[in-house]
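FIELD: query
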Amino acid sequence: AFRLGWHSFVFGRANQYMPDRPFDSGGYSETGYDCSFLDLNGFDQTMTYILTSSSWRGPTRTDHLIKSSKPATLTLRGTKSSVCDSMVNGSVSIAWCPTNTAYVQTFSYRTNTTYGAITVKKGKVRLDKGARFINVPKLVLDAEGAFEIAEGNGVENPLPALKRIDLVSGATLTVPEGVAITAERVFLDGRALAAEEVAGAAWLSGG
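FIELD: result
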């Protein structure tokens, strides 16, 4: 990676980031690297998790960005739960695969504009405090994976461009009352589900 100015990193090859370190998108972290602008630059990267230091969190912060102008996957091998306020845009796909199914990667506040997919291999990805991914076309939940819209998130449909949901038996999707997620097609264990099979399904919880 090379550094551009203050707290800005652009990658030049795949897996250049240390896979045993987190990425801190604000402030200073003794356990990881602090950076307000991260450009995958079309190269897949692996790290433990992404977070925003508490002093840099909040709805008015707009200077934390994770991006890639070309398709790239950010794989997070979570070693703990964390909260990220960075905006994710461009063509970044996110894959959450923590070491413990109890770990949660939370995204809060931002309107994320990435066109990449979200995959939860295990553990949970949560949207909270108004977070939304307005261009994500695909959500993939493996057997130990969960995706949750937090109660009080305040967004009626935080995934408005969703076209496809792929689930493996054991996955869970939590949608609270007052929130509606729509998708053109839903697959369970590779089989396309009819609309009447989705309502009340065992993998769907919430309102």
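FIELD: remark
The CA atoms of residues 1 and 11 lie 4 Å apart.
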